[in-house]
Amino acid sequence: MKLEDFQKNLETAVEQTIEDLKPTMEEAALTAKALLARRIQNTGFGRRYRSRGYKSLRASKGYEIRFVNLTFSGKMFQNWKRPGNYRRGFVIGGTVGGTDVTTINKLKWNKSRYPTFDKVIEDEKELITQNLLKPRIIELIKKNMFR
């Protein structure tokens, strides 16, 4: 094989691998959201409710009051499930958005109050990387490089 042919095959394999990874990135984003939602609802993210009135309302309904868990009706987490993906050069990523206007607005509002509430922690990133992304990337590279 000539060097030019090898280079063309390599470029094609890279492009195909990037395209093939888009659904995996959506799956990774949905998995990250599920891990994040479980963590926030079970242990919060380091914030406490300050308003006595709101805290009393939550307590009267039997809701969590020891920490902010962003769950009153639960609909934001339930409807935060529309997957998406993006590509910027060789960077590919997955996203998860709200399925309706109310959820989109709740996510924006919570993001404005708690800018990092939607960020996964290192343990969650590592879990997704080792168990989903790394195996899939290796599989796709093998498939696309050695056809």
Q: How many individual β-strands? A: 2
Strand coverage percent? 5-15%
Structural class of the helix and strand makeup? mainly alpha
Helix-strand topology string:
HHHEEHH
Ranges with pLDDT <50 over ≥5 residues? Answer: none
Task: Please name the defining characteristics of this protein.
5 helices, 147 residues, elongated, two-stranded antiparallel ribbon, 2 strands, mainly alpha
What does this structure look like?
The protein is mainly alpha-helical and 147 residues long. The chain has one domain (13-145). Helix content is 62%, strand content 12%. The chain has helices at 3-43, 52-60, 75-78, 101-113, 122-145, and strands at 80-88, 91-98. The protein has a two-stranded antiparallel sheet. Strand 1 (80-88) and strand 2 (91-98) form a beta hairpin. The two termini are 14 Å apart. The model has no long low-confidence stretch (mean pLDDT 94).
Short description:
With 147 residues, the chain is mainly alpha-helical.
Record the SSE blueprint:
Blueprint: H1 3-43, H2 52-60, H3 75-78, E1 80-88, E2 91-98, H4 101-113, H5 122-145
Antiparallel strand pairs: 1-2
